Amino acid sequence: xxxxxxxxxxxxxxxxxxxxxxxxxxxxxxxxxxxxxxxxxxxxxxxxxxxxxxxxxxxxxxxxxxxxxxxxxxxxxxxxxxxxxxxxxxxxxxxxxxxxxxxxxxxxxxxxxxxxxxxxxxxxxxxxxxxxxxxxxxxxxxxxxxxxxxxxxxxxx
Length: 157
Description:
5 helices; single chain
């Protein structure tokens, strides 16, 4: 009887290799290890495809609401600044999220990695905005959006 050697199957063949989609590959790789397909909580493939299919439509539906919200926030901030109590940071970050969402929409419809990149940038800026305003619900929603974004990252080419 001779011993036989059977190597373990290559786990990298079943899991996607890391590819940087953003301008910050070191940060993206560390976040992907926690939130991505190699993380502890993984979204099934059929749900990933559903999310990728409906994400642009959801973003498009919320765009007018976000636009009017930013206009209202900018107006209230400008009015409050006249009395010395306004914070411009929240209004600027909200406007930046709106711009990034608008830039991301064509790429989300075409499933390009550039669309995913701008969507993720918008989610990160939104998370920073929620953190600066100490919005617990907003931070939880931002964490959920970032988790979903990293779960479907490799569905975008």
